[in-house]
Amino acid sequence: MKRTIALLATFLLVGSYLVAQPTSETLPSEGTEKIYTIGISKLVSHPALDAIEQGVMDYLESREFTVSFDNQNCNGEIATAIAIAQKFKSDDKDIVVGIATPAAQALAQIIKEKPVVFGAITDPLAAGLVADYTRKEETNIAGVSDLNPIELQLETYFSIVKPKTLGMIYTSSEANGVVQMEMAREICEANGIKFVAAAISNSSEVKMAAQSIIDRIDAMYVAIDNTVVSAIPSVSEVCMKAGIPLFNTDTTSSENIDFLMSWGFNYYTVGTETGKVVERIIKGENPKDIGAIFFDDPAQFELWFNLDTAKKLGITIDESLLANAKVIIKDGQKQVQP
């Protein structure tokens, strides 16, 4: 499928932006052993990205080497992401980790002499983090993609809700948001479904964007878009008030909202896999030889259904789909299936 390449604009001048002190820092015990300093830059705090961050830290702290973490939160601001990258460069971190596209892009722009590891980048090529997927180009960048099987996900959703028009909110300044929006548009066109998109630039605009399109759609789709997901309760609220089913691909943030279907990664697992990339670099592997890692094991994805929401909306979910679900919400209870 043809993908639209969309690169985020970056700031060349940061001026006097101030970076807060680390939100958390793990200090190793005294000794002569090499201490690997790891800077982690996270775009924003929400359940999925927090789970990635925790997964990276837990995995690396379980290994045989000693690490020290400097955790920073960009609070959704690109300028802050660049300021954090400059701080990490000044601090001479051994390895830096960017969680979500703008955070990783800022690190890649500023830090050239030390390894940059990305976590949860939907399309590393569109984000400009890799030159191609052949692993031939010299680079200091490697990491993990969270690209979902979007076509399979949406066509499964279509089989349940049978929409005539699909709505989607996306972040126009995030490469992964734009890429997934274009992919969703093409999938809708292939299935004869009208597509209505609403672009936002920050999380405060998400609810208004949902309200702006809710009367023109009969199903809502939220992709792996960090800014939108950080405000997912407001999308759920607008959808339920209008009687519109919601497909949220971030299972981590789905537990306490009125979604119909959720299908995506366990993001703690994405964090541990990102931590494994850091470990490979610590053990001497060249980032060029690691490249971009994509998940292709179905066991790494989780399918969730909320039968309470389905009942409210008068939607029936086929038993064969329910049998393959990892989590079912029924009568307000979360049921985890083997």
TrEMBL record:
UniProt feature coiled coil, ranges: none
Name the UniProt record assigns to this protein: ABC transporter substrate-binding protein
InterPro entries assigned to the protein according to its UniProt record, in alphabetical order: ABC_transpt-TYRBP-like, Peripla_BP_I
Residues in the signal sequence: 1-20
Keywords recorded for this protein, A-Z: Signal
Organism phylogeny: Bacteria, Pseudomonadati, Spirochaetota, Spirochaetia, Spirochaetales
